């Protein structure tokens, strides 16, 4: 299902009908603003953030984390290569929900895997995208 195909006001919220399950792919495309500091993609339940994907230009990394009952876990920051996002440039992030992790690709190149910390995948019912970007398309 294509939820949006042009620039939308941020933060942008999209329902994920049926929640997540293995091999479901969520795709987010946009353009990083020229003076961007950060943007984020969150997979959320009613009360928790199951997966927080947060490119930070002011820190030159991509932070990943989970927030359960208002408490953030340990951040993951390591990357296998240089920061894949560039200010002023377009991007496509594809996140595949696997049985044990989220597998993240940026512009068709595998970036990282993030192990599930919140196990009830079907409870992950919405996506939130926000920060310093122009959002062009979200597919769930």
From TrEMBL:
UniProt cross-references to CDD domains, sorted A to Z: GLECT
GO annotation terms (biological process): negative regulation of CD4-positive, alpha-beta T cell proliferation; negative regulation of type II interferon production; positive regulation of gene expression
GO MF entry, a single one: galactoside binding
CC per GO annotation: cytosol; nucleus
Domain Galectin as annotated: residue spans: 12-140
Record keywords, A-Z: Lectin
Keyword Iron-sulfur tagged: no
Protein name: Galectin
Native source species: Octodon degus
């Amino acid at each position: 299902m294509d939820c949006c195909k042009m620039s939308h006001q941020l933060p942008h919220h999209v329902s994920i009908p049926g929640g997540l399950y293995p091999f479901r792919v969520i795709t987010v495309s946009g353009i990083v603003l020229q003076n961007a500091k950060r943007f984020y993609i969150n997979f959320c339940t009613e009360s928790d953030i199951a997966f927080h994907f947060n490119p930070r230009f002011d820190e030159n990394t991509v932070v990943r984390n989970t927030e359960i009952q208002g408490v953030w876990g340990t951040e993951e920051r390591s990357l296998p290569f240089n920061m894949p996002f560039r200010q002023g440039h377009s991007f496509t992030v594809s996140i595949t929900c696997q049985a044990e992790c989220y597998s993240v690709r940026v512009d068709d190149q595998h970036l990282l895997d993030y192990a599930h910390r919140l196990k009830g995948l079907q409870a992950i019912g919405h996506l939130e995208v926000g920060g310093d970007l122009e959002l062009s398309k979200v597919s769930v």
